[in-house]
Amino acid sequence: MSQKFIINDFENSAKNLEKLINKNNIQLNELLKIKEKTYNNFCVPYQLMQENLEVFTTPIFHIDSVQNSELSQKVYGECLPILSIYGTKLGQNEELFSAIKLIKSTESKILNIEQNKVLDNEIRNFKLGGCGLSDKSKKDLEDINLQLGELSKDFSQNLLDATNSWEMICDESDVHQLPASDKQSASYEDKDGNTKYKFTLQMPSYIAYSTYGNNREKREEIYKAYCTRASQNEDLIEQIIELKTKKSNILGFDSYSSYSIESKMASSEDDVISFLEKLASFSKNKANDELNEVKNIANKLDGISDLQSYDLGYYSEKLKEEQYSIDEEYYKPYFEQDSVVLGLFEFLYKIFNIKFTRIEEESWNEKVKIFEIHEDGKYIGKIFLDLEARTDKSGGAWMHNWHNKYDINNNNQTPSAFVVCNFPASSKEQKSLLRHSDVVTLFHEMGHALHHLLSNVNEPFVSGINGVAWDTVEFPSQFLEYFSYEKEVLQIFAKHYETKEVLNDDAINKLIKARNFQSALGTLRQVEFALFDFKLYQSKKSKEEVQSLLDEIREEYSVLTPPSYNKFQNGFSHIFAGGYSAGYYSYKWAEVLSADAFYLFKEKGIFNTNLAKSYKDIILGNGGSKDMNELYLNFASREPKVESLLKIDDIIS
Ligand SMILES: [Zn+2]
Q1: DSSP notation for 544-592
Q2: What is the pLDDT of residues 3-27, one digit of tens each?
Q3: Is the pTM of this model over 0.90?
Q4: Ligand 1 centroid to residue 466 C-alpha, Å
Q5: CA 453, CA 474: separation in Å to the nearest integer?
Q6: Is 445 a catalytic residue?
Q7: pLDDT in tens, 584-626
Q8: Structural domains of the chain, ranges and CATH numbers in brackets
Q9: Cα of 116 to ligand 1 centre, how many Å?
Q10: CA 215 – ligand 1 centroid, Å
Q11: What is the per-residue pLDDT for 431?
Q12: Marked catalytic residue, from 445, 459, 481, 591
């Protein structure tokens, strides 16, 4: 049954959450008292109890992102600690851990694949969290986690302080090529009343000068300041690697890299490294060609014969303007929001046989559009589209799952999800016209949503996007993205909203060419980051060893070697202050799956319904209930090929 988006008693959410959690705790204690625990009498109610909690909390957190107010912030701030304390306690509950292990050992043979996967994931997560260790090891682990928390906070703070403490003042002659809006943001009046321009190391400002700053010396000045930020982070990096190594040792792994892949699709450290090296070696020739293009234009325009890292952004932009640019304004009338959404639905009906029907129902905002999804006349799920920018909404775009699809012991539920974007607002007078990149975003988020909504799994913990390995989460989203560049797909909806004229082939080809601009250079850069991250966490390292690892990788794979003062590592927050440690490779890993799956469609036909059905049933339908290695092999009858990504990115032919 589909549930409406209604939040009762929002201001008292924290109190109600506490009540619900108390109820859960009481129920869990009751469950733990059961003498003969089985999957049915223990795991089923345990999952349902967690599901209820998620259904209750998701809208509360959702409201804070889509209709932010003082009240929503207050409620969020009250609920978050309650939930995280509950989560931490649950993750350390040895009795619960033992109960699940016991059920696994006694019932494994009579349980189905989904049920076994639920148990395996639970056991793995408990182990990775330190359950089952001696008290001494637990204490050590707790200390390490605390220290790591402090270190990552310091790492970010140092970076932030360094970013905010630097500025560069420019004259009119240094900025005359900047777009008006960037110039405007940088301009100020000095004490003598002269107009000057100030640039900082904050992203938009840094990017603006690196891309459009015509004074080469100033370009180097800002580049050097950027890549020498937070030199004290060097020492923190040493400590972070040491602690993460210790942590993985306590948990029974040789290194943090092997700990990291335990919960991912990649099956060995060598797998990850050889995958990245393959990508890099294939990309190098094309990257050299791309770099030569930039060198030529730098020479032609300004007689520069020794192109440096700090010139790359600027002359790449010149090259792009000359040969690869697309005029967003030309495309917008072809991408009117309503027709894009309806076109996307029509396309999804064509390949997946699923029908989207708009329903009128209240939700959090009048601009939200709600659709029911039917397959062969059967209701299978619900999607909330909140696509237009508002001042009370967080930026960017995302998908969030609400209900999970399940069917256990006569309890069943259909799934639901929210897709949120920040497209231009529509009004009675003005249609919402999208850029092509917005269309790509919508396809991307819809890819995530379908992964959740088209689940055929009965167990909530591994249904839809639940339990999906981290390095494969982006597979269905990137996969769907590729279709938004396909002529046959675009022709469904890319029609001028006034003249009804269809976007022509030439304009479509330009979109593809623009997408692949410097794709080999981009790939090499990502591989450089990913290899550095992964090899870094394979063993403990001194700061000198960290530097020489980076130097070696650059020596091998960079086509333009950065100056020796470049200490990129000191600003690599993804892996030192975020969750990507020994996992940065995941971006490219998922891209290979998406590209390879898409390539099959290119070979067998974009609207090949047999292939689409197999993708829907196998890849999407199984959610997190099986490993992606197995699902992929099942779907494609072969392993994914790195070459498919290289072909789609136009790196090899
Ligand atoms: Zn995504």
Answers
A1: HHHHHHHHHHHHHH-SSPPPTT--GGGG-HHHHTSS-TTTTTHHHHHHH
A2: 899 998 999 999 999 999 999 999 9
A3: yes
A4: 15
A5: 15
A6: yes
A7: 999 999 999 999 999 999 999 999 999 999 999 999 999 999 9
A8: 10-132 (1.20.1050.40), 135-163+234-325+517-653 (1.10.1370.10), 167-227 (no CATH), 331-515 (1.10.1370.40)
A9: 28
A10: 37
A11: 93
A12: 445
